[in-house]
Amino acid sequence: MWEAEKAKEEFNAWHAPEAVVEILTAEGDRLVIKVTGTACKACGFDEYVFDYAYLLADLVGEVNVESIVDERDGLRAELVVKPKAAQKPPASER
């Protein structure tokens, strides 16, 4: 899913090192990400998951955050992508 990678790159360009997204799995319409970083974990750190979801939604259509799990070194989140019409990656991404 090239859109997930593109959204990750944009997110990390804006938010690192406070928050960094890593894509753990991308299978079908499901995406599992991990968010780590130096930002305060008690001060709305989970909002970074939604920030990533909004960036991705701009590229694919609709993205729902299904779950967020607090882990020792960050957050793990499962997202469900509901794409618009099928899109092809830009030539530079093929």
Quick structural overview:
The protein is built from two helices and four strands, in the order H-E-E-H-E-E.
Question: Care to describe what's here?
Answer:
Strands 1-2-4-3 form a 4-stranded antiparallel beta sheet, with helices on one face. It has a single domain (2-85), classed as Alpha-Beta Plaits (2-Layer Sandwich), CATH 3.30.70. It is an alpha+beta fold and 94 residues long. The protein has 2 helices and 4 strands. The chain starts with a helix and ends in an 11-residue tail after the last strand. The protein has helices at 2-15, 47-60, and strands spanning 20-27, 30-36, 61-71, 74-83.
Question: Keyphrases for this structure?
Answer:
2 helices, four-stranded antiparallel β-sheet, 94 residues, alpha+beta, 4 strands, Alpha-Beta Plaits, 30% helix
CATH architecture: 2-Layer Sandwich
Overall geometry comes to globular
The number of distinct β-strands equals: 4
CATH class: Alpha Beta
Q: Terminal Cα separation, in Å?
A: 11 Å
- CATH level-3 fold name: Alpha-Beta Plaits
Question: Helical element count?
Answer: 2
Question: What number is the mean pLDDT?
Answer: 90
Order of helices and strands: HEEHEE
Derived from helix and strand composition plus strand pairing, the structural class reads: alpha+beta
Give me the side-by-side strand order of the main sheet. Answer: 1-2-4-3
Number of domains: 1
What is the helix content?
Answer: 25-40%
Strand content: 35-45%
Radius of gyration: 13 Å
